[in-house]
Amino acid sequence: MIRSLALPKAHNRRLRMLLVLPTAAAAAAVVAACSSSGTPSGTSSSGGSSAHVAAAAAGLKTVQVGGVTVLTNAKGLTLYSFAPDTSTTSKCNGTCAQNWPPVKPATASGVKGAFATIKRSDGSAQLTFHGHPLYTFVGDKSPGQANGNGINAFGGLWHEAPASGGAAPASNSSSGGGGY
After folding, report:
1. pLDDT category, 19, cuts 50, 70, 90?
2. In sequence order, what E strands does 36-124 have?
3. What does pTM read for this prediction?
4. Angle 101-125-87 from CA coordinates, rounded to 5°
5. What is the sign of the dihedral through the CA atoms of 99, 152, 120 and 37?
6. Rg of the Cα atoms in the chain
7. Nearest Cα to 149, choosing from 165, 120, 170, 126?
8. Is residue 107 very low, low, confident or very high in pLDDT (cuts 50, 70, 90)?
9. What is the dihedral of CA 139, 144, 172, 140, to 10 degrees?
10. Which whole-number Å values give the CA distances from 161 to 32, 133, 150, in the listed order?
11. Nearest Cα to Cα of residue 89 among 61, 120, 63
12. Residue 105 pLDDT more than 90?
């Protein structure tokens, strides 16, 4: 009888190990994926990150808005950057994020540049372009609008995200830039 009790215990241990190993492997894969997506990649060189771009920006397009080629989401709405943000931190949370919804990571369709993701304070992921976290604006109701460009709100200036990855042209952020 002692022998029959020992067999199930050994069998249970083996069964537990078979269940724990795949779980541990999955957890390790998640940690590896999170650590690689938490830092911007390709920010110093746009040529070396084209493979990463193809996997990070699908659904994004470029359009001419006010004479500037800007990034848009799949619906054609202009994407924006927020001046106080850093390449690893969004400073737009709470009410700010309700008015300027963060762009969630997607997959690419032809936009070239240095895309990455950051982890927001609420734990969600946000897409970045050349080190700038990206947002849409609730005031843009249809494609081709850039009503949020040049607005000073929530502690800083908002600029449309140029497809070049550089800063928005200064002429677009003048006093008349956000009023159309």
Report:
1. very low
2. 61-65, 68-72, 80-82, 115-119
3. 0.63
4. 85
5. positive
6. 22
7. 170
8. low
9. 0
10. 29, 10, 11
11. 120
12. no
Burial zone of 103 (CB within 10 Å; 0-12 exposed, 13-18 middle, 19+ buried) = buried
- Which value, to the nearest 10 degrees, does the dihedral of the CA atoms of residues 46, 48, 54, 60 take? -10
Query: Burial of 44 by CB count in 10 Å (0-12 exposed, 13-18 middle, 19+ buried)?
Result: exposed
**67, two tokens:** 């004479």
Q: What is the DSSP string of 110-169?
A: S--S-EEEEE-TTS-EEEEETTEE-B--TT--STT--TTTT-EETTEEEEE-BTTSSPPP
Q: Look at residues 84, 87, 118, 89 and name the one whose alpha carbon lies nearest to residue 104.
A: 118
For 133-175, the pLDDT digits (tens) are 999 999 999 998 999 999 999 999 999 999 888 766 544 433 3
Token pair listed for 137 = 């604006």
Percent of the chain as helix, strand, coil, to the nearest 5: 30, 20, 50
The pLDDT of residue 49 is above 70:
no
Closest CA to 137 of 129, 128, 150, 146: 146
